């Protein structure tokens, strides 16, 4: 008789932990929390999209739509926080530099009131460079996707 394995407990990060992992601050912090982090392999970032977001003032008046580039940024922040958490280093001396964005597709607008889930899955890593496939979902529906590459580096002294 084989023993049943207990389900693996996945890590998570509330906003306090996200702020420890990433150097980003408002208005450029694009994630509110991270759920279901598994090593550097997978995570789901959460962005609660509200009408208060500064970009909605101009994108677009009377018809607010979250800019696609900010959805991609939220994906990158989720992946960056996942890697920094996995490495066990603090975001205070770590920077995440975008290197590539490939195969970006935007399928449906993200609007105030949406809860944007950022599903990030590792494609590969080598040295300080990681590549992830990201999917943005609202209510389970795919709204955006892309592949991103980023490098984690120590912050330079000022």
Description:
The structure is a single chain. With 158 residues, the chain is of the alpha+beta class. The chain has a single domain (11-154), classed as Thiol Ester Dehydrase, Chain A, CATH 3.10.129.10. It is built from 2 helices and 7 strands, in the order βαββαββββ. Strands 1-2-3-5-6-7-4 form a 7-stranded antiparallel beta sheet. A hairpin with a 2-residue loop joins strand 5 (115-126) and strand 6 (129-138). It is globular and about 45 Å long.
Name its key features.
158 residues, alpha+beta, Thiol Ester Dehydrase, Chain A, 7-stranded antiparallel beta sheet, 2 helices
CATH class: Alpha Beta
Strand content: 35-45%
Low-confidence stretches: none
Approximately how much helix is present in the residues? 10-25%
Strand/helix succession: EHEEHEEEE
Assign the CATH architecture: Roll
What is the averaged pLDDT score?
Answer: 90
Strand tally = 7
Question: CATH fold name, please?
Answer: Thiol Ester Dehydrase, Chain A
Structural class: alpha+beta
Q: Please, how many helices?
A: 2
Q: How many structural domains are formed by the residues?
A: 1
Rg over CA atoms: 16 Å
Span from first to last CA? Answer: 62 Å
Largest sheet: 7 strands, antiparallel
Quick summary of this structure?
With 158 residues, the protein is α+β, with helices and mostly antiparallel strands. It is built from two helices and seven strands.
